[in-house]
Design goal:
Elements (H helix, E strand, L loop, with lengths): L5 E3 L6 E3 L3 E2 L12 H13 L4 E3 L8 H10 L8 E6 L1 E5 L18 E5 L3 H15 L4 E7 L3 H4 L2 H24 L3 E8 L2 H10 L4 E5 L13 H7 L3 E5 L16 E2 L2 E2 L2 H16 L4 H7 L7 E5 L5 H12 L4 H9 L13
Parallel strand pairs: 3-4, 4-5, 5-8, 8-9, 9-10, 10-11, 11-14
Antiparallel strand pairs: 1-2, 6-7, 12-13
Helix pairs in contact: 1-2, 1-10, 3-5, 6-7, 9-10
């Protein structure tokens, strides 16, 4: 069994492995994954040393939590760290109830999510998650999807922010002080909203998806310096930017789970060319780059198969010479302020 180094979450007693497991894909939204396949890829991650697992009620409308809990219950509770999220409460579809128009396909059938960032909503969401996972204590509880990328409406975003800070945040803080959860944070898609939350409450960590990567480093402007100065640990989701940094960069490469714009394809290809000159996988550089920032504690790529999990493990351990990072910076492909691995 392999070992992966761990880093501490804020000022808490929790430490997470530098490579975590993003459990969104096993929820089934992106592809159909059988129960056996889901357990096999989780076993591959465990044998590779991964001990940090991130999930959400939203991932497959409960399926991700069910599958993850089934796997983890065979191991002692103290051997792993798990994070899940609040913001959507699940309910069973009632006879005659119309399913929402935006209900995603391939989720757990018969269950419908409802946004709820209130005090009671947080309590119900955590109770449901613990039941699906089969555990009584949550390590990290994250506020999910109060960002413009998800909501696409500034007024509604501000409304949900106020609801959370006026009600849901009180529940999170009470649960943390009671020891029911070990840390609180947010799981978001935008650095500016991470900063807004970090300034509004006493959060231990932020899970930022796709906004501090080898391709884009806008989080360096304000959020990451603030996080470092205030002991807010950062977990990086989507280190491959939904696929554009995963391997070769084809014309149909995706970014933010849709067709990538031409300027990002061209930039990604320039980065890939530097990696090719050093005979190194683009994905290895993408996975390791965020970990150089002192505020970052873990990267949590998803995987659709045990093979992809094995690739992530290999990319984490791939030796990368300092010359590669220096060349990327010399060509203007990395922000001048971005910390470089090994520096």
């Amino acid at each position: 069994m392999e070992h992966i180094a761990a880093r501490r979450i804020g000022t808490t007693a929790l430490s997470v492995t530098e490579l975590g497991f993003g459990a969104a894909p096993i929820g089934g939204f992106r592809a159909t994954i059988t129960e056996a396949e889901a357990q096999a890829l989780l076993e591959t991650a465990w044998q590779g040393g991964v001990r940090f697992f991130d999930t959400s009620p939203f991932y497959g409308y409960g399926r991700s939590e069910l599958r993850l809990g089934h796997f983890l219950r065979q191991y002692p509770r103290e051997e792993f760290i798990i994070s899940t999220k609040i913001g959507r409460v699940m309910h069973a579809k009632q006879p005659g109830e119309e399913a929402p128009a935006d209900l995603r396909s391939n989720g757990l059938p018969g269950f419908i999510p409802t946004f709820d960032y209130s005090y009671d909503g947080v309590m119900r969401s955590l109770e449901q998650s613990c039941q699906r996972l089969g555990i009584s204590r949550m390590d990290i509880l994250l506020v999910h999807d109060i960002d413009f990328w998800t909501i696409q409406d500034r007024e509604l975003l501000d409304q949900r922010f106020r609801t959370l800070m006026d009600g849901g945040y009180r529940a999170l803080d009470e649960l943390r002080r009671a020891g029911v959860i070990g840390a609180i944070g947010c799981g978001l898609n935008e650095a500016d909203i991470c900063l807004r939350f970090a300034k509004a409450g006493d959060f231990d960590c932020m899970l930022l998806a796709g906004r501090y990567t080898l391709l884009e480093q806008g989080a360096l402007d304000e959020f990451l310096p603030y996080a470092e100065a205030h002991n807010v640990s950062v977990i990086i989701g989507g280190p491959y930017n939904s696929g554009i940094l995963a391997a070769d960069v084809p014309d149909h490469a995706t970014h933010d789970y849709k067709a990538a714009p031409r300027h990002l394809i061209e930039k990604a290809r320039r980065i890939a060319a530097v990696c090719q000159r050093h005979r190194l996988p683009l994905a290895a550089a993408a996975l390791q780059f965020p970990l150089a920032h002192p505020a970052v504690v873990s990267v949590i790529p998803g995987a659709l198969s045990a093979h992809e999990v094995q690739q992530n493990l290999s990319h984490l351990r791939q030796p990368i010479p300092a010359a590669l990072w220096q060349e990327l910076r010399a060509e203007g492909l990395l922000a001048p302020k971005a910390p470089l691995p090994g520096a």
